[in-house]
Amino acid sequence: MEIYHTPVLLKEVLDLLNLKEDSIVVDATLGEGGHSVEILKRIPKGLLIGIDLDEEAIKKAEERLKEVGDNFVLVPSNFKEIRAIVLSNAQGATQILADLGVSSLQLEEAERGFSFMKEGPLDMRMCKPCTRYSAYDVVNTFSFEELRDIIYTYGEDPFAERIARKIVSERKKMPISTTLELADIVRSVYPKGYYRIHPATKTFQALRIFVNRELDNLKKFLEDAPLVLLPKGRIAIITYHSLEDRLVKKTFKENVSLKPVVKHVVKPTKEEISINRRSRSAKLRVYEEIG
Ligand SMILES: C[S@@+](CC[C@H](N)C(=O)[O-])C[C@H]1O[C@@H](n2cnc3c(N)ncnc32)[C@H](O)[C@@H]1O
Fold first, then answer.
1. 183-239 pLDDT per residue, tens
2. Is there an atom of ligand 1 within 6 Å of 276 CB?
3. Measuring from atom 1 of ligand 1, which residue has the nearest CA?
4. Which of 36, 164, 186, 222 is deepest in the core (most CB within 10 A)?
């Protein structure tokens, strides 16, 4: 079985979660199980509850986890349902992990439409049946103002207005149907030499966040996850952009039942970044339920 995703900040997560052999751990973003496989090895008398929206990811993770033990349950669901999911499997959780965003598995598969580096249909849905619009629907049917606001709000792209205008003029000629068509449109409005990262990065991030309602889901998760955390339990969140990180920091700062385990964010070492480029923007925050 081919594994695409390298778990980010793995050593730091394992150290800071303070796992015990009988821990009840929720991996709210199971993905291919990179973190969960190592967690399961450390909790032989405990329980791992793995959640992911993406059924393909769940299948892959299940294969890997079965080789380690059978003390796990996997739930194809949205992590915003964490409260109900945990309470139907245990009395609460001693550790919760969320490693947000998109996985390398999703990025690698061109037909999922997440990557501006690979030709594929404009899709970007992590879970097709639970999502109202695909990226194609947004790009081809939303108004100029809506597109501008989505790209500005969720991508924080200073050229949101130009990009939205160009999308609207191009789609009059022919629908914009592939990832590379959209990436070329975005690139064409960026001033030459302006960009350090690929000019389509922020637009793709914005569409992905909007299509999957990522910030709404995260907000609900951040409110509900501490409610199922047992006393002295820990919650670790890995974010990949400032919109997510700001939300985690603000929500948990306002939660009087949580205290930070480490004062500052934990970032990957230079060595990790050199081996796994995807880790470069990761930030880990860990909190403890004061009990
Ligand atoms: C960065 S990957 C996790 C990778 C995993 N930690 C590993 O090492 O293999 C993020 C995963 O979270 C899932 N995801 C994103 N939003 C979700 C949500 N609201 N509910 C459940 N899963 C979600 C994605 O489908 C993806 O598989």
1. 999 999 988 777 678 899 999 999 999 999 999 999 999 999 999 999 999 999 999
2. no
3. 103
4. 36
How close is the Cα of 189 to the center of ligand 1, in Å? Answer: 32
Q: Is 51 in the pocket of ligand 1 (CB under 6 A)?
A: yes
- 248-17-272 Cα angle (round to 5): 80
Query: Is-contact 151 200, C-beta < 8 A?
Result: no
Q: How many Cα neighbours within 13 Å face the side chain of 286?
A: 18
Q: Is 103 touching ligand 1 by the criterion CB < 6 Å?
A: yes
Question: Per DSSP, what are the bridge partners of residue 238?
Answer: 99, 284
pLDDT digits over 12-28, tens only?
A: 999 999 999 999 999 99
**Residue carrying structure tokens 């001693």:** 94
All domains of the chain, ordered by start, with CATH? Answer: 10-105+215-289 (3.40.50.150), 132-211 (1.10.150.170)
Question: Is the CB of 34 inside a 6 Å radius of any atom of ligand 1?
Answer: yes
Cα distance between residue 62 and residue 69, in whole Å = 10
